[in-house]
Amino acid sequence: CTQLLQTSLTVCPSLLFFMLQVLCRYQHIWNINLRLRPAFLGGIMQATGNKPPATLPKRGEYMLKDIKRMAKYYQVPLKISESDFQRIFGTSTLGAMRFITAMDMTQPGYLEPLSREFWIRFWSQSTLNHIIVSQVAKQAGLSSELTQKLLEMISSPAVKNRLKETTEEAIKYGAFGMPAVVAHVNGEPHLFFGSDRLELLGSVIGE
Asked: pLDDT band for position 130 (50/70/90)?
């Protein structure tokens, strides 16, 4: 989830790469304080009864084309095929989100590069089951000492509770999937879902 902090934005870095990329590009252009908030997509889907859109065959067919168009438009590295949908739906992101949550609790300044690196590996290179977290962390600029510290934290009650809390917070704001962005404008939260709501978001925050 991403939180725009007036104006504040909250983004949950799981499967929202297009929105994440654009907000990170605009955070120094728009008058916003961008705050990344790790939340667990699986927990949000289960709590709201939502289902992956690509489980509807025709929608999945459309999504495949649309994602490729968006990747070209936003100039982000993405390789995806029809078979990737089933691979992705069958892969748990819980371990990655706990690692990212541990980072949020330790050195939140690394959230952006770490989230980006996990996303690229997840969509473009391999499943998380075969990703060596230390390699992801190194690519994101983390030291081996910090990486080891985070790996030791991910099974702790503190990290598990923190991820649960931020996930529940996203649901309270009305999130039912990702990307979910909460823009706080003049003390009022505004929820935006999907990476195709950037124009509406800009309008609400006066940009």
From this structure: very low
Which CATH code for domain 3-205?
3.40.30.10
In contact, 117 and 136? CB cutoff 8 Å: yes
The secondary structure of residue 121, as a DSSP letter, is: I
Global confidence as pTM? 0.83
State the DSSP string of 39-87. --HHHHHHHHT---GGGSHHHHHHHHHHHHHHHHHHT------HHHHHH
Q: What is the pLDDT of residues 157-204, one digit of tens each?
A: 999 999 999 999 999 999 999 889 999 999 999 999 988 888 999 999
Measuring CA to CA, which residue among 108, 103, 115, 97 is closest to residue 150? 103
Strands 2-4 and 180-185: parallel
Where are the domains positioned within the chain?
A: 3-205
